[in-house]
C-alpha cells in the first residue's frame, strides 16, 4: 500500500515550515524557543483525537510501540531542534545566561516527570528509553549476591527478561520464571505471585510489570510490592505502559525502583524514558560504568554517559503540560477504556475469539490482546496480523512469549477514533474462523 499525504497535510506542512524557519523566528539566536500555553483541563477529552496529525488511511491500533506526539508537542520539538542546532555547544556547555542551557533543561524535564508520579525531582533520571532505565536498575542492583534468586513472569517485556537472565549468567543469580494464569483475575494473579515467592525463599529481586506489553493485563502492583517486601524481596516495577495512562504515583505503588518510557503515553519525543529510585535507596543501584564525572549521590550517575537528544529532553515539559491539559489520567483512562470496550463488546459473541484480559477496569485499559481459535504458533499469529492489515487496513501486532500461545495485540492510541475500534470489530467478525 502506498501512503501519500493528503492535501490538508501538505498545505499544513507548507504553511508551518516557513514560519519555523523565518528570519523573525531566528532573529535572536540566543532566544529560547517559546513555550506554548497549555492550561490544565483546557482541552476537552472529546477533542483528544483532533490534537494529533496522523495517517488516517490505516486504522492504526498499534499505539503500544510508542506514543504519537500531539500537534503542540511536535511543533515544540521542531522549535527546540532548530534552537539546539543553532546554539550547539553554546547551549550544551551551559555558558548562556539565565535559563537557556542544558543543565536547566535537564532539571525542568526531571521536575515535570516527578510532578506526574508524585516524587522528588532528585529521584528521577531522564533516560533514553524505558528499557534503558530498567536495564540499568536490574543489572546494577547491588544487594544481589551469587545464589540469590530473581523472579520474573512470562508477561514481562523481552528486554527486561533479558536483563533478569543476565543476572543469572553474569552475577550467579538463580533465575526463576513463572506463568501468569489464564484467564487472569485479581485473586489468581496475587495467588501466582504468592506461590512463586513462597517456593523461592532465596529470592532477592522481583520484576513486576504494571501493564503487560503482551496482553494488556494490569497487575495489582501495590499488593505485589507489599507481598514481596514482607519476605525481604525488593521489587523493580516496569511502568512503561502505565505512567500517563493510569493514575500512577510512586508512593501508591510502594516500590523503591521503577522505570518507564516517556515516549509512550506521555507522548514526548522518541528517545525519552525515566528512572525512579527512592532517595533512601540510591546507594543500592551502582553508578553506570564508573560514571564518576557525576557525583555518586546524584541519580544521574546511574545513567551511562553520552550525548542525548537535547531537543527531546527540552520538549518533555510541554508533553507533561499536554497530559494535564486534557485532564490527566482521570480523563484519559476512561476515554481509552471506552475505545477498548467498543471493539471488545462487538466481538463477545464470537466463539473463536478469546479476549486475553478481563473487563474489570482495575485489570485492563487500552491494550487488549486476543487469540483466535487455532492460533497456536507464531506463524499463525503472523498470518492473522497480515490478514487484518492487508484486507481490512487494521494495524495490530502479534506478540510471542505468552506461555500458552501467541496473541494479537490491539492498542488504540490517544489519536484513535471510534471508527478505528469499529474497523477492528468488523475485521474480526469477518475473519474469526480463518484458522479453523
Automatic annotation (TrEMBL):
<keyword id="KW-0663">Pyridoxal phosphate</keyword>
<feature type="domain" description="Aminotransferase class V">
    <location>
        <begin position="105"/>
        <end position="386"/>
    </location>
</feature>
<dbReference type="GO" id="GO:0016829">
    <property type="term" value="F:lyase activity"/>
</dbReference>
<dbReference type="InterPro" id="IPR015424">
    <property type="entry name" value="PyrdxlP-dep_Trfase"/>
</dbReference>
<dbReference type="InterPro" id="IPR006311">
    <property type="entry name" value="TAT_signal"/>
</dbReference>
<dbReference type="InterPro" id="IPR015421">
    <property type="entry name" value="PyrdxlP-dep_Trfase_major"/>
</dbReference>
<dbReference type="Pfam" id="PF00266">
    <property type="entry name" value="Aminotran_5"/>
</dbReference>
<keyword id="KW-0732">Signal</keyword>
<dbReference type="InterPro" id="IPR015422">
    <property type="entry name" value="PyrdxlP-dep_Trfase_small"/>
</dbReference>
<feature type="signal peptide">
    <location>
        <begin position="1"/>
        <end position="27"/>
    </location>
</feature>
<dbReference type="InterPro" id="IPR000192">
    <property type="entry name" value="Aminotrans_V_dom"/>
</dbReference>
<protein>
    <submittedName>
        <fullName>Selenocysteine lyase/cysteine desulfurase</fullName>
    </submittedName>
</protein>
<keyword id="KW-0456">Lyase</keyword>
Amino acid at each position: 500500500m502506498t501512503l501519500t499525504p493528503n492535501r490538508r497535510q501538505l498545505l499544513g506542512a507548507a504553511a508551518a515550515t516557513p514560519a519555523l524557519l523565518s528570519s523573525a523566528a531566528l532573529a535572536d539566536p540566543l532566544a529560547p524557543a517559546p513555550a506554548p500555553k497549555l492550561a490544565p483541563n483546557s482541552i476537552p477529552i472529546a477533542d483528544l483525537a483532533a490534537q494529533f496529525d496522523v495517517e488516517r488511511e490505516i486504522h492504526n491500533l498499534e499505539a503500544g510501540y510508542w506514543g504519537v506526539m500531539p500537534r503542540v508537542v511536535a511543533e515544540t520539538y521542531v522549535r527546540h531542534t532548530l534552537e539546539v542546532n543553532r546554539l550547539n555547544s553554546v547551549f550544551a556547555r551551559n555558558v548562556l545566561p539565565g535559563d537557556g542551557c542544558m543543565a536547566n533543561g535537564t532539571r525542568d524535564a526531571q521536575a515535570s516527570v516527578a510532578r506526574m508520579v508524585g516524587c522528588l525531582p532528585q529521584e528521577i533520571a531522564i533516560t533514553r528509553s524505558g528499557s534503558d532505565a530498567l536495564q540499568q536498575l536490574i543489572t546494577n542492583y547491588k544487594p544481589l549476591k551469587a545464589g540469590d534468586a530473581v523472579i520474573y513472569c512470562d508477561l514481562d517485556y523481552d528486554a527486561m527478561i533479558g536483563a533478569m537472565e543476565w543476572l543469572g549468567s553474569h552475577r550467579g543469580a538463580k533465575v526463576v520464571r513463572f506463568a501468569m494464569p489464564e484467564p487472569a483475575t485479581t485473586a489468581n494473579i496475587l495467588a501466582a505471585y504468592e506461590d512463586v515467592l513462597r517456593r523461592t525463599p532465596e529470592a532477592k529481586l522481583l520484576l513486576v510489570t504494571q501493564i503487560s506489553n503482551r496482553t494488556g493485563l494490569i497487575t495489582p502492583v501495590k499488593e505485589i510490592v507489599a507481598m514481596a517486601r514482607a519476605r525481604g524481596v525488593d521489587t523493580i516495577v516496569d511502568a512503561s505502559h502505565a505512567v500517563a495512562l493510569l493514575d500512577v504515583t510512586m508512593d501508591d505503588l510502594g516500590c523503591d525502583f521503577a522505570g518507564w518510557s516517556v515516549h509512550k503515553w506521555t507522548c514526548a519525543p522518541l528517545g525519552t524514558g525515566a528512572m525512579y529510585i527512592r532517595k533512601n535507596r540510591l546507594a543500592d543501584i551502582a553508578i553506570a560504568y564508573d560514571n564518576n564525572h557525576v557525583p555518586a549521590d546524584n541519580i544521574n550517575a546511574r545513567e551511562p554517559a553520552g550525548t542525548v537528544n537535547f531537543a527531546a529532553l527540552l520538549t518533555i515539559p510541554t508533553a507533561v503540560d499536554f497530559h494535564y491539559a486534557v485532564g490527566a489520567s482521570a480523563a484519559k483512562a476512561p476515554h481509552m477504556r471506552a475505545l477498548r470496550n467498543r471493539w471488545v463488546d462487538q466481538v463477545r459473541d464470537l466463539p473463536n475469539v478469546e479476549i486475553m484480559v478481563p473487563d474489570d477496569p482495575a485489570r485492563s485499559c487500552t491494550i487488549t490482546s486476543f487469540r483466535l481459535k487455532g492460533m497456536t504458533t507464531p506463524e499463525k499469529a503472523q498470518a492473522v496480523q497480515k490478514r487484518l492489515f492487508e484486507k481490512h487496513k487494521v494495524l495490530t501486532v502479534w506478540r510471542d512469549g505468552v506461555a500458552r500461545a501467541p496473541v494479537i495485540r490491539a492498542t488504540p492510541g490517544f489519536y484513535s477514533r471510534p471508527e478505528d475500534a469499529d474497523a477492528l470489530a468488523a475485521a474480526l467478525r469477518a475473519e474469526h474462523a480463518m484458522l479453523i
